[in-house]
Write a structure and sequence with these properties.
Dihydrodipicolinate Reductase, domain 2, alpha/beta, single chain, Rossmann fold, GFO_IDH_MocA-like_dom, eight-stranded mixed β-sheet
């Protein structure tokens, strides 16, 4: 994969710290706004990125780029992804995919017409611990209660209270805790248990944006409570509770650093099956494999998963309006 990066925010900085651990990944180019060109040049120098652009169109036309990593504010995803696809580039789009189910369907249609692959960058479903938890569910089944918690006091929250609004707290830019943090919980729950029968979101609203919230997902035989917060502090712990035991893990639901299986019979075992130290390495290793081998079947499987998550997000937003 010859990767062109669009954006230079925190997620790009984070990704670049682990890019050299991913086999067959070449950092071909980075494009930013003119205002961020100095940052882009510094990143290129530090991480060996070959080209630096201040115009996305130049990156789209670069023959040395076959895949574009879209890491811009949420509200710009649709526009940038569409342009990349129409220029014949494969796309890795940072979560959340796009704003609506209709946008997601349109982008997939255009991608298929241009014979390119599009995937959503979401860490947890590509981790070894996710697969291991999925297999371990049968040990504690039947499962009736899921409580996932991603609480992370935002470094931008104090500025938000003072009136300095970053994109992640801007409703006009598709910000908010549902889209930024609870989406990890949704991906995890949908990946483990499938689409729910009903969805209801209970947000804490400040200045027109959800700074924290609780999402309830109802299944025929279980209830899932998904908690996310950018305005609180805790050391989060998440639980999957069944008649024969509990699976629990601490910290971010996007990292899944390890997990514990507490059996009703008394045995307790702690596991870690993650291959890489950095949470983003597994997803990009998977994307390289999918794109380099033109694994359309796997890409479509990931698309179906993303669409299920998009549907939950749409229901969550609608439940607040109603």
């Amino acid at each position: 994969m010859k990767l062109g990066i669009i954006g230079s925010g925190n997620i790009v900085h984070d990704f670049l710290t682990t890019a050299d651990k991913i086999e067959n990944l070449e950092l071909a180019a980075i494009s930013t706004t003119k205002r961020s060109q100095a940052i882009a040049r510094d990143l290129a120098k530090q991480y060996g990125i070959k080209e630096v652009f201040a115009d996305n169109n130049l990156l789209f036309r670069d023959p040395n780029v076959d895949t574009v990593y879209v890491a811009v504010p949420n509200s710009l995803h649709y526009e940038v992804v569409k342009q990349a696809i129409e220029n014949g580039k494969n796309v890795i789009c940072e979560k959340p995919y796009v704003s609506t189910v209709a946008e997601a369907k349109e982008l997939k249609k255009i991608a298929d017409e241009h014979n390119v692959i599009i995937v959503e960058a979401i860490t947890n479903i590509h981790l070894g611990n996710f697969q291991a938890i999925k297999k371990a569910l049968k040990k504690i089944a039947p499962i009736h209660i899921i409580a996932l918690n991603y609480t992370q006091y935002s470094s931008r929250y104090d500025d938000f209270l003072k009136g300095k609004i970053a994109p992640v707290f801007d409703p006009a830019k598709d910000g908010g805790t549902l889209m930024d943090l609870n989406i990890y919980n949704i991906h995890l729950a949908v990946g483990l248990f499938g689409k729910p029968q009903a969805v209801q979101y209970y947000p804490v609203m400040q200045k027109g944006i959800d700074t924290s919230g609780i999402l309830v997902m109802t299944y025929s035989d279980k209830q899932a409570t998904l908690i996310a917060s950018k305005d609180c502090y805790t050391n989060p712990r998440s639980f999957i509770e069944g008649e024969n035991g509990t699976i629990y893990f601490d910290g971010s639901t996007g990292v899944l650093a390890n997990f514990t299986v507490d059996n009703r019979g008394g045995d307790t075992d702690k596991f870690n099956f993650n291959q890489y130290e950095h949470r983003m390495a597994s997803e990009f290793a998977a994307f390289v494999d999918i794109i380099d081998h033109r694994d359309v079947a796997e890409a479509n499987k990931l698309y179906d998963h993303s669409m299920a998550v998009m549907d939950v997000l749409a229901q969550a937003k609608a439940s607040v309006k109603n």
